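Summary for the steering committee. One of the milestones for this cycle was to obtain a three-dimensional model of the protein with FE2/S2 (inorganic) cluster bound, which we needed before selecting residues for the alanine scan. The sequence and ligand used are listed below.
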Amino acid sequence: MVASNDILRRCFCERATQFLGALLAGGLGIPAIAYLLRPANTIQPGGFVDAADLSQLKLRIPEEVNFQRVRKDGWKLITEKSTAWVVKLSESEVVAYAPQCTHLGCAYHFNESKGEFVCPCHTTNFALDGRVLGGPAPRPLDRFPTKVQGSRLLIGTIESAKPVSDKKGA
Ligand code: FES
């Protein structure tokens, strides 16, 4: 009788140990496998972020606007600072240009007296609508897609402008 109780106790202990081991393996293993199999998040294109208050911008006077964009890279959230040259064409129509010259990527500025964007590196001039007026830049200024919600300007991700084959002044 005593021997039989010992066997039952040993059997119970083995089963309990196996059960706890399986529970532990499942508790640790399932999340680990899910972590490894889950696809990495990459940059989400087309996301719009709040960038400016349109009521603060003057009509047809470009304004350099700074904004922040949060993107996922793998499992990390990265906050990036961005800049756009924004031109308010009317109360509901806005253009936002990427801040780099389309020649070799220098930062350009707005020359108020000329009413043009001017790149100091190799003297490309761009019109308010982004066209190349003169200089070596091969294409108009790149743009951010924009949305207007109330008085807020939302900015998407940069879209490259297409080269202009019959560019004047090049
Ligand atoms: S980088 Fe702007 S003209 Fe060359």
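Key point for the committee: The domain at 49-155 is CATH 2.102.10.10 (Rieske Iron-sulfur Protein).
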